[in-house]
Amino acid sequence: MLKWIIISVLLFAIELYAYQAIKTLTKNPWLLGLYILICLGTLIYFFYGLSQFDRKIGVTKENLQAMGAIFLLIVPQLILIVFMLSEDISRLAIAAYNFVKASIINTEGDTTYFPERRAFISKLALGIAAIPLAGMIHGIIKGKYNFRVLRHTLYFDDLPDSFDGFTLTQISDIHSGSFDQTEKIAYAIDLINEQASDLLVFTGDLVNNRAEEMEPWITTFKKLKTPKYGKYSILGNHDYGDYIQWDSNSDKVANLNAVKDMHGKIDFKLLCNDHVKLDNGTDQIALVGVENWGHKFKKLGDLKMATGSIDKESFKILLSHDPSHWEHEVKEHDTNYQLTLSGHTHGSQFGIEIPGFIKWSPVQYIYKYWGGLYQEFGKYLYVNRGFGFHAFPGRVGMWPEITVLELKKRVV
Hints:
39% of the residues lie in helices and 17% in strands. It has 9 helices and 14 strands.
C-alpha cells in the first residue's frame, strides 16, 4: 500500500510541476482543460491497468499497454521539468539578488523579487520533449516489429579449415507473451529463413513467465527452416517462472518442464548444460549451451558440465543468455570459448546507434557488454538486442534483431 501512495504522490508532483509550463504558454481555459483531461485519463488508465495485474499470471498485453501510456505521458513531462527546474534555480538566484539589493538601498514600493517564467523556455522545452514523444509513439506502433538483419564477419586463428565461411543466425529474447501481431512475426520468420545460414540458434527467454504464452505461436515458429547443422536453443532468466507467484513449487517445476518441451514443439534442440558436436565429415566444432547464469540472477550455468570432455583448445561456440556470464566467468576461463552468443539486455529497447559515431543506451550503466560485438583476450562475445519486447511495449532506436555471423579462418 505504501509504495502505491509514494508512486501516486510522485506522479501528482510531476503533473503539477509540468502543468506550470503549459500555463506559461497559454491561459486559454479550453486548452488547459484538455491538457488536464489527457493527464487524468492517462493516469486513470495506468492505475486501472496495474490493478488488473495478477501475480499468478504475470505481465499481460493489457499491463504493457498501461505501461506504454504512462511512459508517453511522463517522459516528455520529465524533460519539461528539467528545463523548468533549471529556470527556477536561475529565478531563485535572481530573486535572492534582488532581495539583497533592495535591502541594501532600502528600496520601497515594488517588492516583487521573482522574475516571471519565460514563455521561450517553455516553448523550447515542449519542442525538445516532442522528440522522444514522437519516438515512443513510433516505437509502440511500428518500432517493436521493425526487424533488422545485422551481419558480422569474425576471424579466428584456430577455426578448422573446413569450417571457413560457416554461417550462423542468432535470435534471442522472443518473449512470446508480449506479441500482438501475427503477420509481423510471420514476416520475421520469413526474414530468418532468407538468411539460409548453416546453423540457427536461440539464446533464451522464450516466454515472459508461462509456457502457455507460446501456444498461439507454435505453428508460426515451426515454419523456421532447419539448417544443415540444426536448430539449437538455451533457457533465459524469464523461462524459469521466477517473476510470478505459483500455488506450489510443483506447479512452477511443471511450468519449467513445459517451457523446455515447447522448444521441441518448435523443432529446437534445447541445450541445458550440454553440448553437441557439429561434424562436417572432415572437422568438428562444438556448440555448448548453458542454463542461465547472471551476475544479478540465477547462476545455474555449469561450464564444466556443459563442456564435458571436449578438449580445452578445440573450437567452441558457447550459448549463454546473460552477457555478464562472459564478463565474470567465460572470457578468462581456462577452457577457450572462442565465441559466446548472448542476449538478455534488449539494448534496453531504447537508445541511439549510429555506426562509427555513437552507441548509447541506458542499459550500459547496468551491463558493460550490452549490445553488439565485443572482443577481449582473443575471444568474441556477441550480444543480440532481442527479437521481442517486454515491460515497455515498444522499441525506440534499438530495433528487434536477427544476427548473422560468418566465421572465417584468419590468413596469416
